[in-house]
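anyone seen this seq b4? input:
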Amino acid sequence: MNTECIGDCVKLKGKVYPCTISLTLDLVGGKWKAVILYHLKDEAKRYNELRKEMPIITEMTLSLQLKKLEKDGLVSRKVYGKKPPIKVIYSLTDLGKSFVPVLVAITEWGNQVVSENGEFLNNLS
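predicted toks r here
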């Protein structure tokens, strides 16, 4: 099976990319996007649940990355209630769910690299 990009470039939502790899990395690349997707892969979560699972991410970064993931169609945001305190739940869209096998493969590969060449740390202090 040929997995190379079919065209000379690709376009998604008005943005042109040189290939599908570039498009993919734009959607899920960076330090936190894939991590957020990984934490949502099994179930929908509230903002504070995500913060607890990723203690070193800042609130501003988490909020910004969730907005980007929502804009790109990987995460959905459902608001319950009209008056504070409102309940907001984040979950993967069908597009986000289609990326889960890639997340699992990346996790397994990363674990192998660290096992062979690095070390796992249990706390950051």
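DSSP finds six helices and five strands in the chain. Residues 87 and 97 are 22 Å apart (CA to CA). kinda curious what u guys think
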